[in-house]
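Just scan my protein:

. . .
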Amino acid sequence: MAEQEDEFDVVVGDTFIIVSRARGWWVVQRDPAGTGQVEQDPSKQGWVPAGCLLETKVPVAVAIAEATARGSMTGSPPTSPPGTTPILPLSILSTSFPGIALMDYKKKGEEELDLQKDDLLRVFKRYNHWSYAVKEETGDRGWVPSWFIGKVPTSSGTPATPSASTAPNLSVGDQDSRYNDSSPSQQAQVSPMSSAFPPIQSRTGPA
């Protein structure tokens, strides 16, 4: 949740254009259609914590279309939770590591992800024994318990995901979770929904 007037609330499924970056915070412009078109109007821009967005290297609408087309070609339609859309890992700039599903997992909440044994994944975030993963094949994404995912050694033929810090200033983010001031305590069987994340420190306050 926004704590200052120049900050934006962020909810699952929101899309933005990243205008500039500063110390873990990004200045963004809302981009509901995911077109990547920047409007030169500072009143439509605001701050969000960088850690609550996935950064893509193409406009979100393009990334979604690519993932949907891949699902149609493979005969595996995307099954991302409501409020999210499939995005292939190759379209995402945010730092990640490869993983593989060690066993089947049936999601127990809307923000979780179904897994089948041996699904290939990219893991983008980890929190309280949960991992935010994207399926390599379909772009489906969501939270799964970390112990269902095994790490895959990165071979010389598999380039590492580029760091967001090397990306151009103008890019697009697609949100995967929400920050607010609720308590971070969660039961082990509950995925990290909005209230799981710790409060964000003010970017202007003391460290």
